Structures are given as structure tokens and as C-alpha cells.
Amino acid sequence: MKTMKHILTLLIFFAVESTFAQSSIPDFLIGTWKMENKEVYEHWDKLHENTLKGFSYNLKDGQMFISEYLEIRRDTNKIIYSATVLKQNSGKAVYFTLTKQDSIYTFENPNHDFPKKIVYQKLNDKEIYVQVSDGKQKNFAYKMLKQYQKEEKNDSTIVNPNYDKALAEKLGGDDYGMKSYFLVILKTGTNATTNKELISKSFRGHLDNINRLVEEGKLIVAGPLGENENNYRGIFILNNLKTIEEAKDLLQTDLAVKNGLLDYEIYNWYGSAALPEYIPFSEKITKIKP
Questions:
Q1: Which of 55, 68, 96, 242 could join 107 via S-S bond, C-beta 3.0 to 4.6 A?
Q2: Nearest C-alpha neighbor of 255 from the set 192, 209, 190
């Protein structure tokens, strides 16, 4: 009987783990939302399939004043909500974990003083309901209304007079002028061969592959690092890739990586969407190509 109970407990545990592993991030938040009856806003962008990035702000005399930076991201089998409130907690983020999901997303941190629980509920495509509480009596709640794109000249969310909407859309920039890339740190590989022909062929292929990826718009930064104790050899910044698996597959087209002469570490990186714009100028100042 104990064995059966143990098996049932494990089945329930794995069912719960599986449910959260399959949980989705709340895409319905994407866009700009305004608190009902107040000039308080939240704006959310989707960086990639596993991350939403947002911020809260209010408008006063046409000026935007940001109060906190927000993020919802998948972390292995958990979904994490983080809030970094300006001038609080020494600038450090507070983290909450998704505990319930349906049309209602509940994020909790029982160890935080206040709030301990943040809830986003989708009422319909135009309204969401937000609750912030300590899980008991201390709480407040409000409704937020979806703000739709207006004609650019009347759009109160545009506070930069130099904003170029067409360029931002062309480069894939979000409202911060940023986008998601993959940062690759190249390091010495495990292949310690002294075969000069293999080494020469591999690194010739490495350079040829760099040029090819630049032409395809998939590589926007590449360069060697100085000598260091970590055996780091250089960096890549990969562009226009959706998943880390796609980035890893792309790195296998590098002959030095494929032959084990180079290895790598790879990270999500959030940077200026304008970064690729320097490439045409680099061609004009290159006297000798490697």
C-alpha cells in the first residue's frame, strides 16, 4: 500500500512539473496598457519565445517617467516574473514564480514583504485585471485598458523627437530601440592536434564562414580577444535567429568549431537594434580582407 501511495505521489509530482514545464508566457500582455482612470501605463514587448520585457511609466506634460522595469521569462521548467523598481531595493530585481496559469497568471514570492503575490487576469482582448497583495488582507487591484496605435503625430507614447518609425521597424527594434541577439564567446577547444594542415584548413574555413554569415545578415560582430587566463579566443554576436538551438546549429558550420579546435559559450544578449547598421561602413574602411 505504501508503494502504491509513493507511486501516486510521484505521478502527481511529475504531472505538476510537466504542467509548469509546458506553461506559456502571457503573450496577451504584449502592447501598451493604461490603468483605468489614471495616467499610469505598462508596456510589454516579446523579445523571443521565452521572454517578455516591460516597463511601467506615467506621463506628465508629454514626458515619460519610468517607475519600474519588468520581465517575464522561462527559466528551465519555471516561469519567472521580475520587477526592478527605481530607487528601491538598491536597484536589484525582486523575483516571483508562476504558481497558477490559465487566463489568470499568478506569480508568488512568499519571502518578500510586499507584494507576495502578483496576478494578471485577461478579461478580454481590451482589458486586463491586475491584483497585488500580501496573500492575505493587504492588497490593491485595478483594471488596465489596451492602448491601440494612433497616428504617429498624435501618439503620446512617442517622446523622442528623432524617432524614425520606418527605420525601427526595418531593424526590428522594440520601443527601447533594442532587440535580442546571441552573444558567443569562443574559447580553445578540446582538440589538441598538432596537424598543421588540419589547423590551417580549419581556421581558413573559420574566416570564410565569418564572411558568409556576415553577408547573410546572421553575424554582425566578430573579433579576437587578447590573451587571457580563461582561454577565451574571440566573440561573435549572432543576429536574426529565433532560438539558441538555431544558434548552436549555425556555429557547427564553422570548421574550427566542428573540428574541435574552438569551443564556445552562448548567451542571450539584449542590445541596440541599430548595431547592424555599421556593417556597410566597415566594408569601406577595410583595406585588406583576412
A1: 96
A2: 209
